[in-house]
Amino acid sequence: MRRSVILGCGSYLPKTILTNDELAKRVDTTDEWISKRTGIKSRHIAAADEKTSDLALAASREALAEAGLDATDIDVIVVATTTPDNTFPATAAKVQALLGMTKGFAFDVQAVCSGFVYALAIADNFIRLGQANKALVIGAETFSRLLDWNDRGTCVLFGDGAGAVVLGAIEGKGDNTDRGILSTHLHSDGRHYDLLAADGGPGSTGTTGHVRMEGQEVFRHAVQNLADVVDEALAANNLKPEQIDWLVPHQANQRIIEGTAKKLHMSPDRVVVTIADHANTSAASIPLALAAASKDGRLKQGQLVLLDAMGGGFTWGAAMVRW
Ligand code: UT7
Questions:
Q1: Is 280 a catalytic residue?
Q2: Which residues fall within 8 angstroms of residue 306, CB to CB, at 6 or more apart?
Q3: pTM of this prediction?
Q4: β-pairing, 76-80 with 134-142?
Q5: Known catalytic residue at 113
Q6: How far apart are CA 55 and CA 30, in angstroms?
Q7: Considering 83, 140, 150, 255, which has the largest number of Cβ atoms within 10 A of its Cβ?
Q8: 200 lines ligand 1 (CB under 6 A)
Q9: Choosing from 9, 20, 44, 113, which is the catalytic residue?
Q10: Phi/psi at 147 (nearest 5 deg)?
Q11: Which of 272, 281, 300, 285 is nearest to 117 (CA)?
């Protein structure tokens, strides 16, 4: 059975760091409120001349280098983003050109904060079907550009960054001892479209709009949906929570992450948490966390890694991966 194994990870964070204390000079908030309610201490903000594709390119180069591959080895690029350089074409096409890759195909995926899990699932399916042998999967965001900097309920939550992974095909036995992506689980429920959304778009207002969120409602759904999808991923692979080595969750709120970890009976030292320094980077948060834990040696070959995410739409999903 064909499986997709992660061959390399990369990340990029813009140089400028905006701390909670600095933000408190701009809006009516405090470091104490943000830290206590979310776990966020600071976030990175892209420079005026940095586009989502620039962030994606830097993360991709690092992932390709770690995989020991050139861009010419890649068959498909999938970029998960809510903040594309342009309304069209896809940011993935820009990344393809910047990497000097002239074969294969490249496209974007829009599932907001669940975008990376969606992109990973899509790329994994191309590989399993034999339509691609190597894939570059990127989560990249300049989310700061979608924020209303006068809305303290949202502007304190997000940051910019990019993460990337390179997937390659391997043969497995078809059971949960295989290396690579064992399963992916995607969900959406459009009834909650308005609870976390931009208040504009090219097809409605002709503007990009700003992020609007019913925080408490999103929180409630996130805890439930993530608990459900994590159960689904465990059951699909005939695994028990104690067999999972690492939880690498989307980084929206420390309390949501702790809720999922508690459900899995996982101690905090088995959860990769970057939210204090990165804030919520939407589709970039999971690949940024993967790159951090891969670089510092926490993720070891053969370990079981569970990814989960929830975002606007609502969308949510999980992926079970043997590193
Ligand atoms: O990535 C996609 C998924 N996103 C999420 O999962 C986010 C889910 N939601 C959350 O993480 C939380 O709901 C928030 C962190 C957004 C908000 O935390 P909360 O504990 O739900 O706070 P709240 O919205 O209920 O607001 C509590 C109080 C309010 O004041 P009153 O009405 O009690 O007087 C807010 O006006 O906190 C106030 N508040 C703030 N105060 C200081 C809201 N934002 C701020 C702020 N600084 N930045």
A1: yes
A2: 230, 233, 244, 246, 247, 248, 264, 318, 319, 320, 321
A3: 0.98
A4: parallel
A5: yes
A6: 29
A7: 140
A8: no
A9: 113
A10: -90, 145
A11: 285
Of ligand 1's listed atoms, the one at least distance from the Cα of 255 is 11
- Residue span of the structural domain in which 216 resides: 1-323
Task: For residue 3, give the H/E element and its range.
Answer: strand 2-12
Interatomic CA distance for residues 129 and 1, integer angstroms: 10
Based on the residue annotation, tell me whether 9 is a catalytic residue of this protein.
no
The answer to whether residues 169 and 2 touch, using CB atoms and an 8 Å cutoff, is: yes
Domain CATH code at residue 274 = 3.40.47.10
| Cα separation, 49 vs 38, whole angstroms | 29
Distance of alpha carbon 43 from alpha carbon 40, whole angstroms: 8
User: Which residue from 165, 44, 126, 141 is spatially nearest to 91, judged by alpha carbons?
Assistant: 141
Q: Which of 44, 185, 221, 250 is catalytic?
A: 250
Between helices 254-263 and 215-236, what is the axis angle to 10°? 30
Closest by Cα among 198, 194, 109 to 146: 198
* Separation CA 263–CA 278 (nearest Å): 24
Q: How many beta carbons lie within 10 A of that of residue 184, not counting itself?
A: 22
DSSP assignment string, 63-118: HHHHHT--GGG-SEEEEE-SS-SSSSS-HHHHHHHHTT--SSEEEEE--GGGHHHH
Total domains in the chain come to 1
How do residues 272-319 score in pLDDT, each as one tens digit? Answer: 999 999 999 999 999 999 999 999 999 999 999 999 999 999 999 999
Q: Which residue's alpha carbon is at the smallest distance from atom 14 of ligand 1? A: 215
Q: How many residues does the chain have?
A: 323
How does pLDDT run across 72-112, given as a tens digit for each residue? Answer: 999 999 999 999 999 999 999 999 999 999 999 999 999 99
Indicate if ligand 1 lies below 6 Å from the C-beta of 195.
Answer: no
